[in-house]
Structure formats: C-alpha cells, structure tokens
Design goal:
This protein has 12 helices and 20 strands. With 412 residues, the protein is of the alpha/beta class. The chain has one domain: 3-Layer(bba) Sandwich (FAD/NAD(P)-binding domain), CATH 3.50.50.60. The strands form 4 sheets. Strands 4, 5, 6, 7, 14, 15, 16, 17 and 18 form a 9-stranded mixed sheet that branches. It starts with a strand and ends in a 17-residue tail after the last helix.
C-alpha cells in the first residue's frame, strides 16, 4: 500500500499515476480533496512560465514594490526575519546563471505535464472547461511592452517559447474586452491553456475512485511511525495508517513534517487571492496577465476569476479586503467590465514557494521509503501531471520520463 499525503493537485496526480501503474493507493488529506490552492487558482496550464521568480533585477523591483501602499507584494517584517535563510537564498538566485539553470528544470516538468493533460482529460472524460487558445500577457505602458521583447527573445531562443506580438491596435482587435487605450500591447503564448480547477479536481477525484484509490479526508498527518530508517505508518489525527511506501505532497504544509523527514524543506507559504464572479457581459475571450499590476484574469465558460498577489505572512488564513480590492483595481485598469454582477467566491490560499523556483521531488534523508513531492510554487497545476508520473516512475522503478536530478534535495 502506498500512502499519499496531500489531496491537492500534486497529491491527486501522484495517486492517479501510481494507481494507473497497478499500485494500491490511499490518499490522506487534512481537509477536502481539491481544496486549498488547487481550488481557487486561475487555472492556467502555462509552459510560458519557464523562468523562475528569482532573476536578475528582481531585488530592486521587489524593494520598489514593497514601498507601494497595498502593492501586489506584501511581506510582514517579523515573518521575513523568521525565514531569513529563505529570503537570502532567493537573493542568491537572482543572477543569470542560476535563472537559466532553474529554468531548465522547470521547463522539463512544464512540457511533460502539458502533454499529459491532453491524455488525462480525454482518457477520464473530465469536463473542466478546458481551453487551448493561449494566454495573453498585456502591458499598460510602452516602456514595459518594449522591455518584454528581450524576455520574449530569451524564451524563444533558449526555451522554444515564441509568442505572437500585438501592438495596441491589433491587441484591441484580438481582445475587444480591453478598454481602448488601456494597453500599449501584448504577447500571446499559444502553447498555454486554461481550465477550471475546481471542476478538474472533482473529475480527477472521480477517476481515483474508479481506479480503487481509498480517499481519507479531514485527516491531518502529524508524523510517521518508523523502524530502522523506514516508515511503517503515518500518524494522523484519526490514528495510524499503515503502508509500504509514502509520498509527502502536502504543498505549503509539507515543512510541518521536517523533523521526521530529516531535512529542512525550504518551502514557505506565499499567500494569493482570487475573486470569482459571474461572467461579465463584455467578457474576455482570452485568459490574461496584466504584468505591471501582477493581476490575472480567467474567463471560464461558467464564471470569471481575477487572481494573484503575493503575501509572505505565514499561515494566516484571513482574507484582507484591501488585497481583494487590489485585484479589482488591477482588472479595472484594463477591462471594460472587470467583473460580473454577482460575486460567487472570495478566496485565499497558500502557494508552496521554494526560493529557486523548482519543486522538490526526492527521497527523505531519514526515511528511505518516503518520497517528497512539494514546493511547486505558482505552477502546481501546470506541473502536476508530470510530477505525478515522475513520482510513479520512481516508486515503480520505471525509467523516468523526466530526469529527476534537477529536483533533488542535495541542491540546497
């Protein structure tokens, strides 16, 4: 029996591919399967996001963002001091060599995952409003639009991520939901896609049931019962659950198991927000990221979502109305109708942020039969299928489709 800890998109993917490989699987989730960050994100499958957050010049722009009143980035000083090692690690990554090294590992999982989503949705007949006509990066100022040309060249030349450039007039023709004069231009990444994440998770959970996976919800894992360097059971708030192999895919909560894993996972919670409404009457055709405001919009077939922001404040689950208003203001700067008539959900969730931008997929140093699959940052949905298949390959001794070296713990 393989026990998967965590019922978000990564844990669900691991359970799915292990079950497809013929293994008996139990999925243990502290809340509800498909909750937390796997529920309220913007639903992007974005191979375009190959570059990590840590890159040259980010320190300066980050300090500038922190000085903005209610800006898209918020860091509580006390929390920053308590996680000083993480923030220093991020600063050390902000150079060209580290960025390119990280991007190579990110690219491998993004590409493998994007291919596997087509098969997953077809094989399991999951209806999740899947849309494959691309993701649009929109720029308000001419300076930011022109500057992004260098990024687009880098993505094209080194990572085969070409985008279609649209100047202001052409962009407005492509996306009439934008306000006239609101944007200097944009770049369309046609290899990206979008889906509605709550519907994906509902359909994926049904697929797990068909495959015989046992799902245990409202059950928090607190540790492992072990003998001679191997785990024999997970200890939970509902008693022990025995297994032969274990996968820690608990997202931002994975570091709560550091003491028993024998390592310090460099994962901190990066809080994000989203606002979901009914579809505006003038609804965008394309999912869009407004780069200068750090706000994203998702036009689902059955609704409309505005999301993003980044807050480093620990595991504070309160919803700050000022942060929600920031999303509204960002969308209003660009869209003729920035939201629908009825708000259906206001949400916050914790992204599991690793300072070099790559997830951790590796064995625990202390427990030989425990595998860690966590730290996917803002790309959990985009990397999920590739991660699940890689974990399944490693545990079933199958030649892996993706080289796992880039995600090893020994890089820290």
């Amino acid at each position: 029996m393989i026990i998967v800890i965590g019922g978000g998109v990564i844990g669900t993917a691991c359970a799915y591919y292990l079950a497809k490989a013929g293994r008996a699987v139990t999925l243990v989730e502290r809340g509800r399967v498909g909750g937390a960050c796997s529920h309220g994100n913007c639903g992007y499958l974005c191979p375009s996001h190959v570059l990590p957050l840590a890159m040259p010049g980010v320190i300066g722009s980050t300090l500038k963002a922190l000085l903005q009143r209610n800006g898209p980035l918020k860091v509580r000083p006390g929390y920053a001091l308590s996680q000083l090692g993480w923030f220093l690690g991020f600063a050390r990554q902000c150079n060209a060599a580290a960025m390119m090294h990280a991007a190579t590992g990110i690219q491998a999982l993004l590409d493998d995952s994007r291919r596997r989503y087509d098969a997953l949705l077809a094989d399991e007949a999951i209806e999740c409003e899947f849309d494959t006509h691309g993701l649009l990066f929109v720029f308000q100022s001419a300076g930011a639009f022109d500057h992004y040309a260098d990024v687009n060249t880098l993505l094209t030349d080194h990572f085969d991520r070409p985008a279609v450039r649209y100047d202001a007039d052409a962009l407005l023709q492509l996306e009439p939901a934008l306000k006239p004069g609101a944007a200097a231009g944009g770049y369309l990444y046609t290899g990206d896609a979008q889906l509605r994440p709550d519907k994906l998770m509902a359909g994926w959970r049904a697929a797990l049931t068909r495959l015989g996976v046992t799902v245990v919800e409202d059950c928090a894992v607190t540790g492992f019962a072990s003998d001679a360097g191997r785990a024999r059971a997970v200890q939970t708030t509902r008693g022990e659950i025995a297994g032969t192999e274990f996968v820690v895919a608990a997202g931002a909560w994975s570091p709560t198991l550091n003491a028993v894993l024998g390592c310090k996972l460099p994962i901190v919670p990066g809080k994000g927000y989203s606002l979901t409404t009914t579809r505006p009457k003038v609804c965008p055709a394309y999912p869009m990221i407004f780069e200068e405001h750090r706000v994203a919009v998702s036009p689902f077939a059955t609704g409309f979502r505005v999301g993003s922001t980044m807050e480093f404040s620990g595991y504070d689950e309160t919803i700050d109305p000022k942060r929600v208003q920031l999303l509204r203001d960002g969308a209003a700067a660009y869209l003729r109708e920035p939201e629908g008539d009825t708000v259906t959900e206001t949400w916050q969730g914790f992204r599991p942020m690793v300072y070099d931008g790559k997830p951790i997929i590796d064995r625990s140093p202390a427990l030989a039969n425990v595998t860690i699959a966590a730290g996917h940052g803002m790309l959990g949905l985009s990397m999920a299928t590739g991660t699940g298949k890689l974990v399944s390959d490693l545990l079933t001794h199958t030649p892996p489709a993706v080289d796992p070296t880039a995600y090893a713990l020994n890089r820290f």
